[in-house]
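# nightly structure sweep
# worker-07 picked up a monomer target from the shared queue
# config: single-sequence mode, recycle default, output format = structure tokens
# input follows
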Amino acid sequence: MYKPMLTVMVGLSGSGKSTIARTELADENTVIVSSDAIREELCGAVEDQSKNVEVFKLFHERIRRNLEKKKNVIADATNLTMKSRRAILMTVNGLEDVFKRCYIVPKPYEQCLEDNRHREHPVPDEVLAKQIGRFQIPFIEEGFHTIIFHRMPENCEANDIPDMRGFDQQNPHHTLDLYNHCTMAVRLFSAKYVYPARFLIGALYHDIGKMYTQTFDESGIAHYYQHQSVGSYHFLTAMCSIDEETVLDECFIINYHMLPFYWETKKAHQKWRKRFGEEKYHILMAFHECDMRAR
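# output follows
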């Protein structure tokens, strides 16, 4: 029996996801549902954000309607957050035999900035800065059957991962420099728990985003807002030539290691335990304990 396929694109503005959807993923039985196209249809301009509620209501309706017609559907929007992807997947709840895949376009941030400036409808640089600060790595437990990385062309050079050694965190919560904090955390993690090596690598680089996000308040204390999202994105784009499962699990630790700091109630723990699944929840909680000790 034929199963229609839902493809949820994930990528920053300027990553080329719309072109990839149109030229590489779509076939004669595929409908591309684009949030930008709907915005232009309703507002007269792609840049007009005044009717976002209406735009995404129609976006979700068209996704479901076309899947009901047994069409393959590509959901073409940035889809950078768990919430945005969850909204799409909830839209198709109840539809039988829909194959759901997530398709990530891991173009390096600096190249997205450059390519965005040459688009027909560029967005301001500060919009991309907000996008990378909101990025949340997808994971199978969200409801996908598979997650695929687009294989970037040879002229798209992967970014490097910076060296953490000697990076002063300049924050009273940390007496160790960044490298020693991260290596101590992973030593504690590996000594007490037995998890696949890919999670240990994620643990080693869990705070790599601090190297991109350091800012200072008026007292000279450093802060690292959204470092978990920024770090996860840069790690993803540096390592995306490796197999998806490995990189996704490495980025999972990087992207979500801060969440347990905010789980103050039993209800919050239950919510995220259900969302992440037993394995990922326990890994995250185990690493949180080690991260707290490595100060």
